[in-house]
Amino acid sequence: MIAILGAGKMGEALLSGVLRAGRRPSELMATVRREERGALLRERYGIEIVPNTEAAAKAETLILAVKPQDMGVLLDEIGPHIPPGRLVISMAAGLTTGFFQDRLPEGVPVVRVMSNTPVLVDQAMSVISAGSHAGEEHLKLAEELLSPVGKVLRIPESLQDGATALSGSGPAYFYYLVEAMVDAGILLGMPRAAALEMVVQSAVGAAVMLRDSGEHPVMLREAVTSPGGTTISAIRELERHSVRAAVVEAIEAARDRGRELASG
Questions:
Q1: Which of 133, 215, 238, 244 lies at a CB distance of 3.0 to 4.6 Å from 219, suitable for a disulfide?
Q2: 168: which DSSP letter?
Q3: Three-state secondary structure along 105-119?
Q4: Is 122 contained in some domain?
C-alpha cells in the first residue's frame, strides 16, 4: 500500500503516473486538506481518501508531498503511528533527511526527492538521495515509483540544494527564455500565436536533439552557427550582455535561497 500525504498538483501527478504504470487504485490512498479535493480525487481515480494518521498506520510507503512549512506539523501528527520498517519519501524542497529522522521513530528509512513540474506530463526530472537508514532496496522502490513520470537520478544529499536550483527551478528558466524570444518575435512583426508556436517547437526540437543525439551542446550550437551568419550575430549579443554569466549567477542565487529556506 502506498499513501500520498498532501495530494496537491505534484502529489496528484505522481498518483496518476503510478496508476498508469499498472498499480491498482486499491493499492493507493491519499490525504488532503479539503474535503472537496478529496471527493474530486476519489471520483477521478477511485482511490481511498483517509486521515493522515490512518495513512501512516496502514501504508508500507509514505510519500510526503505537503509544503515544507507544513511538514513539521505533519510529522508530529503521524510519527507515533508509523510502524517500524516503513519507507518515507519526502518531496519537500530544502528539508534534509535528518529533519525527518529527528522527528520519526528510530530507524525509519527516508529518501529525499526533488522533482519538477513536468511531472504533470510524465517528463519530470527527479533526483533522489538516501538518508542514513535507507538502503539500496529503498532507493530502488523510490525509482520504481518515480520513473513512470520522468527520469530519475541518484545524487548525494549534499548536492540536493544544487539540484533544486538547477532542475527543480529549471523549467522556470526555460519559460523565461521562451517569453523573451516570443517578445522578440512580436518586435519583428510576428503575431503572438505564430511567434509562440515557432519558439516552442524550436525548444522541443532542440531538447530532443540534446537528449537523443549524444552530442555536446557546444557541438549542436556550432552546427547552427555558420561563419558570418545570423546565429553568430545573435550569439555575440548574448555574450556582450553576459547572458552566460547571468545564468550561472542566477542558479547560484537559487541554490543559496534554498539553503536559507531550509535553515529557517
A1: 215
A2: I
A3: CCCCCEEEEECCHHH
A4: yes
Domain harbouring 186, CATH code: 1.10.3730.10
Say how far apart CA 87 and CA 140 lie, in whole Å: 12
> What CA–CA distance (Å, rounded) separates 172 from 161?
16
Does residue 202 contact residue 182 with C-beta atoms inside 8 Å?
A: no
The backbone torsions φ and ψ at residue 123, rounded to the nearest 5 degrees and listed phi first, read -130, 35
Q: Are residues 191 and 238 in the same domain?
A: yes
Gap between the Cα atoms of 44 and 65, Å rounded: 19
At residue 138, does pLDDT exceed 70? yes
Bridge partner residues of 112 (DSSP): 90, 129
Cα angle 73, 79, 82 (rounded to 5 degrees) comes to: 140
Q: Total domain count for the chain? A: 2
CA separation for the pair 238, 229 (Å, rounded): 15
Average of pLDDT values for 140-166? 93
Q: What pLDDT is recorded for position 35?
A: 86
Give the number of other Cβ atoms within 10 Å of residue 139's Cβ: 17
Of the chain, the end-to-end C-alpha distance in Å amounts to 33
Q: Is the pTM of this model over 0.90?
A: no
- Over pLDDT 70: what percentage of the chain? 100
**Domain final residue pick, 120, 155, 190:** 155
Cα–Cα distance between 91 and 168 in angstroms, integer?
A: 11
The beta strand positions in the chain, using DSSP E, are: 2-5, 28-31, 48-49, 61-64, 87-90, 110-114, 124-130, 150-154
Interatomic CA distance for residues 4 and 24, integer angstroms: 14
Ramachandran category for residue 214: left, alpha or beta (phi over 0 → left; psi -120 to 50 → alpha): left
Residues 194 and 142 in one domain: no
